[in-house]
Amino acid sequence: MSFASCCRHQTTIITSLALESSAITMGPSKQSMFRSADMSMVQLYISNEIGRECVNALGELGLVQFRDLNRDVNAFQRTFTQEIRRLDNVERQLRYFHSQMEKSGISLRKLDLDVETLAPPTTTEIDELSERTQSLEQRIFQLNESYETLKKREVELTEWRWVLKKAGGFFDQARDNVDEIRASTDGDTEDDDAPLLRDVEQHNQPGNVEASFSGMNVGFIAGVIGRDRVAAFERILWRTLRGNLFMNQSEIPDPLVDPSNNESINKNVFVIFAHGREILAKIRKISESMGANIYSVDEDTDNRRDQIDEVNARLNDVQNVLHNTQQTLGVELTQIAHSLAAWMILITKEKAAYQTLNLFSFDRQRRTLIAEGWCPTNDLPLIRSTLQDVTNRAGLSVPSIINEIKTNKTPPTYLRTNKFTEAFQTIINAYGTATYQEVNPALPAIVTFPFLFAVMFGDFGHASVMLLGSLAMIYWEKPLKKVTFELFAMIYYGRYIALVMAVFSLFTGLMYNDVFSKTFTFFDSAWEWKVPDKWQEGQPLVAKLKGDYRYPFGLDWMWHGTENDLLFSNSYKMKMSIILGWAHMTYSLCLSFFNARHFKKPIDIWGNFVPGMIFFQAIFGYLVVCIIYKWSVDWLTIGRPPPGLLNMLIYMFLQPGTLDVPLYPGQAGVQVTLLLLAFVQVPILLFLKPFYLRWEHNKARAHGYRGIGERSRVSALDDEDSGAHGGVNGRLSVETEDGEGVAMIAHGDDNDDENEHGHGEFEFSEVLIHQIIHTIEFCLNCVSHTASYLRLWALSLAHQQLSVVLWDMTLGPSLSKPGVLGVIMVVVTFYMWFFLSCAILICMEGCSAMLHSLRLQWVEAQSKYAEFGGHMFTPFSFPTLLEEDDGLADYRG
């Protein structure tokens, strides 16, 4: 099948290369979200004859991030610049076709990239497409130029016809004015500035624009001008000619189309009478400067009727030719519309392939392309098999070689995601890219971020609405994916985030026993009202517990509506926020231990993690223990007032050993011991790591080892000794029978990419300053971050109170209204209540809670263990290119 017919019929073809490569039997690749994937720097040696095919195959895989080996060569001097220019011209032609289709109102057949996949074309098919687009462009340009010329002629003839139709009435009106003025005129003059309608000029030739009028030697000019310019036109004529003219005008009822920009314009017909050649010449110049079109009109009625017949005949001929031209142009564009999307996608992929080839080094003697790049280590067998498959298809005896090389460069961070985890990973990446191989902050964020949101948003009713919305977006996933409205597209992208947040909010709503500001009564209350024998109105009614029975799940519904409900819920939620914050930060701090152990840095464990954990637990861990202990004591039974924990914490720092109200026996000694233990950790945090690193550096120097960052001779990327190694452009040339090369050392040079970082030399002062800053931030953040979690309490309270206010101001009062009026009020207020609940409590409050929980995840949690010093893995990938290219938005289905 030819390339043209393949594109015309849009046959769904799955790339056989990708299918066969994926079908190769091999061990499953390790995919873990806990850390970024293991990355390897590789060198590729590819024959120039199959360079394009290999790049296309790797582009379909999307597993290799190529490095630019020609940084010192400008874009115009690279190997494949001519091919890119040719493809740029084809792309320009395709966009020209699209613009003409939009102008003609022809719809484009878009390509659904999720269903349809085009096989990569050969170079012959690309050449065929280039020639076809060139001929089509000439054809479309000629048709379009002819159409615009004919359209312009049609407009001119239409305007001329309207001028001829309106001129008769103007002449009759002008004759009446001439007779009146002539009766009062005595004497002649030949001055051009003389009053109008004096007999000063000879008769003009018939048919001239400056035709004579009724033997009175009065000339006239007829034409058409835009309606928005009429007022200015009259003013300019009046001031320029000092009133020596007579002008008549009439509106053209139908708007005329401007062929230059295809816009409809309202115009007026005008006829201006004046005498004197110079005055008529001035009128002509003013008319042309104002954009008016001047037309010839015969003053004789019979001749003017013949003119109208002639114009009508010519207009009819032009319209027939115009219709045929438009029909031919439409047929050509309709045929192009069936294949234009496929052409644009193929050209985009072809252009990207050549741009990638320009990153390679070209050995002209051996006609070999040399490439370097990063790829996941576990996917190296798949890449090798793909290159081997391309070589076998081409029938070449020389295999493509891929060598894994060792380097001191920091690899890019590649975090594998799926449809569920992609949105969570995107949120974390918006803050920064995790350092290579450190714990991925997105993994705990899948749970902690939605749960913190739910703590602030906890309402079973509002969560149910959110759950239904997220489930609807997931169920109708494919059709909703095509919606281009930007705000909805953002919500749709986070549909799985909304789902998890809604599920957690259902749980917290049950815990708070809150549903649209009301409560559930699934279980019997643990409280009963204690009514005294002589209870009077105005006295408080107090409830008492029912023996040993306690409410089994969540908050007791009896608290709802009581006078001390807000006091109780405030105390409960405030302490709960401190506990959740402590648990979140403790968990995050533990992740720094796993990072230090993975990177084999025991000094980070003993110099940062251990003293930091002791400092944090000695103060805020102790506070959490006091909160739980205070909850566990029945203070009414023992007859003691419960102590204030805030004052206890303040006195612990300001007056160690002093207690306002004791919480437990021996409290003063415990607090002094914990405070001293916390203060001892500060000098450990400050000095242990810097001095240990200094000792380690000096020890390595004494044994003759090369210092960190000191340069040694480079074997793979160095320009020296290239002749001894048989290399090209300073790179080692390796040939093996099985296509696998030996490992080589690659050290960075001064021209490495900005995002590829090596190791700098050891500077004790810099390490010490960095550690001092880290210690100060950690100690201060322990206080500020713990206080920051109080937003969980504040926003939860705000959401619950707003829900109560909204109920009391809309639906609540209408439920007590009887009769028909009550029914009408219930219906009206229900819609008001539901709409405002969705708009204010779900959308606005939901966005606020999401931003606050995101802040807790970004700052309070991730600062404990994540460095965010990495750079993202951006492989050469056709699927990613086609999805993210904004220029292809009009061609994707």
Describe the structure.
The chain has 893 residues and is an alpha+beta fold. The protein has a domain at 422-518 and 539-701 and 764-864. Helix content is 56%, strand content 8%. The protein contains 26 helices and 14 strands. It has helices spanning 3-9, 16-22, 51-61, 81-104, 123-183, 230-241, 277-289, 301-357, 380-394, 422-431, 442-457, 460-475, 477-481, 486-493, 495-512, 565-598, 602-632, 635-638, 645-654, 667-702, 722-725, 764-788, 791-809, 811-814, 819-861, 878-884; strands spanning 39-47, 65-66, 219-226, 246-251, 256-258, 263-265, 267-274, 293-295, 361-363, 368-376, 401-407, 527-530, 542-545, 745-746. Strands 1, 2, 9, 10, 11 and 14 form a six-stranded mixed beta sheet that branches. α5 packs antiparallel against α8, α16 runs antiparallel to α17 and α16 (565-598) packs antiparallel against α23. The two termini are 25 Å apart. 30% of the residues are buried. Mean pLDDT is 82; it is low at 1-29, 184-215 and 707-758.
Brief summary:
The protein is an alpha+beta fold and about 900 residues long. It has 26 helices and 14 strands. The longest helix has about 60 residues, at about 125-185.
Secondary structure elements and pairings:
Elements (H helix, E strand, L loop, with lengths): L2 H7 L6 H7 L16 E9 L3 H11 L3 E2 L14 H24 L18 H61 L35 E8 L3 H12 L4 E6 L4 E3 L4 E3 L1 E8 L2 H13 L3 E3 L5 H57 L3 E3 L4 E9 L3 H15 L6 E7 L14 H10 L10 H16 L2 H16 L1 H5 L4 H8 L1 H18 L14 E4 L11 E4 L19 H34 L3 H31 L2 H4 L6 H10 L12 H36 L19 H4 L19 E2 L17 H25 L2 H19 L1 H4 L4 H43 L16 H7 L9
